[in-house]
Amino acid sequence: MEHVSLAPLSRVAICGGTHGNEMTGVYIVREMQRKKVSAAGSFSVTPVLTNPRAVDVCRRYTDKDLNRCFTDALLSSPVTDSTPYELKRAQELNAQLGPKGGKEAVDLLVDLHNTTANMGLCLIFYSLDWLTLHLLKYIQNKISSVPVRAIQLDIPLSDAYSLEAVGKHGFAIEVGPQPHGVLRADIFNVAKKAVDLTLEFIQEFNAGRTFEGGEVEAFTLVKSIDYPRDSSGEITAAIHPELQDNDFKLLRPGDPLFLSFSGETLIHEGEELYPFFINECAYYEKKVAFQLARKTTYSFPSVSVEKD
Amino acid sequence: MGQSEPRSQVSSLLSLTRQQQPRRGVLRKDAAAFKQRGWKLFHCRVSSFVGVHTPPRPSVLPGMSLHGSTARLSEARRVAIFGGTHGNEMSGVALVNLWIKNGADIQRRGADIKPFITNPRAVEKCVRYVDTDLNRAFTHENLSASGGDEFPYEVRRAQEINRMFGPKGSPEAYDVIFDLHNTTSNMGCTLILESSKDHFNLQMMNYIKKAISPASCLVLLNEHPLLKYSTSRSVAKHPVGLEVGPQPQGVLRSNIFEAMRVILKHALDFIELFNEGMEFPPCTVEVFRVSERIDYPRDANGNIIAMVHPNLQDCDWEPLNPGDPMFQTFDGKTIPYQGSCTVYPTFINEAAYYEKQQAFVTTRRETLAASGIRKA
What we know:
Strand order of the largest sheet of chain A: 3-2-4-7-5-6-8-13-12
CATH superfamily of chain A: Zn peptidases
Number of strands of chain A: 14
Helix content of chain A: 10-25%
Low-confidence stretches of chain B: 1-9, 17-60
Mean pLDDT of chain B: 86
CATH class of the domain at 51-288 and 367-375 in chain B: Alpha Beta
CATH superfamily of the domain at 51-288 and 367-375 in chain B: Zn peptidases
CATH class of chain A: Alpha Beta
Protein name (chain B): Aspartoacylase
Order of helices and strands of chain A: EEHEHHHEEHEEHEEEEEEE
Oligomer: heterodimer
Strand order of the largest sheet of chain B: 4-3-5-8-6-7-9-14-13
Shape of chain B: globular
CATH architecture of chain A: 3-Layer(aba) Sandwich
Number of domains of chain A: 1
Order of helices and strands of chain B: HHEEEHEHHHEEHEEHEEEEEEE
Shape of chain A: globular
Largest sheet of chain A: 9 strands, mixed
Family (chain B): Belongs to the AspA/AstE family. Aspartoacylase subfamily.
Organism (chain B): Oryzias melastigma
Number of helices of chain B: 8
CATH topology of chain A: Aminopeptidase
Keywords (chain B): Cytoplasm, Hydrolase, Metal-binding, Nucleus, Zinc
Strand content of chain B: 15-25%
Subcellular location (chain B): Cytoplasm; Nucleus
Structural class of chain B: alpha/beta
Strand content of chain A: 25-35%
């Protein structure tokens, strides 16, 4: 592939507390604020605690999930007294870090999350552009303590609902497993390393280094699977012990999915896919027991910063 | 849909255990080890017993008579199983709801066994509590307070539960209450004892430990005058806490659910055998006695400034020696444990305890003697 030149990055936002009980992001952002981090050489860095009310009460959200409020439609909806807190907050963040799709938006927005699922470290993107693919490769090459993977959500920008869609480039860093409301040192350390590596990459990129092209695998979301439920909507089975904690291990027809409370095993039927977000606490109310993805390999060219 | 064989009882507990790995001074770096977070099989170290070597004469409690070395106790007829005392601790919620719909598995001869959701509002919202922690609400002051429309929800609920299953401290109180809990700490299966003189409970716990062997179930004794708290189960004559982890709040893990189910099965079997007249000879039970609460280091505003150290995280019940890593600051600096002797930490990094100023509790190992017991 032919070499590509990209514009330098001048503004980066590091966000945490989008879900107020996902502690890693809360503490990484707080530490950056405490140390008054604002610049890293050739670009500015803004740490942002995105949902302070939810952080205060250590809950995912107070009225509505903030990380579902960033569709074009919701960002442009009129604000009244009865508008949920998180919807108003999303519009504030869009004004501060965006506007989404606009020229003034931050160059890169990184949003820190935790999951109760055993997903290691995942970078979650909407669009796999060259910069984000290079960042993924850079982080994968330098972190070996946990698996580092990419998840792609194949959704057009106008429908993209989460915070990272606001930046010109953006991704979520999702690290697990960690219970909500808990701060684990090992998870904190690996997430902080991923943030540091991101800033290091940008610094080197802006300084003119050429990053070699290559190939990287990503998991593209195909569908979500709910728990079996009874007629009153109560779940009747738990994730099967052989599926539990086996995020990204290929699921084949006949493999167990659920173990009902009465001891029956329910099995996977259909195509071979990769499960993830297995038993994520916050997804019970979204009717998701786990999600399924297809694996794709992407090639990307060498890149370097545009020279004037 | 596939139909599986009933899982062997011990295998569901064994699936929670793994080989104890060398821990002190070894940081887990590889991805496989990172993935296999779970229990550690706790190995008894006889040489480090801090305990009683001569069994003391058991003290006589009301309702108990000493006949030789076997205490005669009244039958355990009224039994309750509490779930949802904390609304986001899912195993107990799921088990109790299951048994309310179909109680066949918890029927035992000679006992009336009642499954009960103690905090339904918290369960509905999947939160620990609505106004105040129900499992701290059963103080004498709360239970005897009158008026009440303006009381916190959980205080009113405590009074109601005390009316239904107590009154606490009276002869009419339920004989046994099991209170089902989960923890984010890597505690495995833990039975919680509130009195070192409760020979009935000691014998039950001994029975359960033997029944599930080689899988392990440890006993935590909280008799500490300052750290002891007024639990929902304390309404009964014989309160038994059952704490299984690690499990995130709001999450239902199949292995944790099954482990709790198996422990309860053995507990109810014990009650049935006791009520049918079986004599349980004197025995000793190893317990971990709560000693001290250790909080996170905090700044002047009360914000935490360090995390449980990776070497201590998940190492519930393993010895913590003076000088061992205890906390790690956000910059990576290690803060060591500075106690005067080896302790056994537990409830390490429990989500609900950040607000209670507790990173973990220390315990001391002790051997308690239980007198023989038999139904009077």
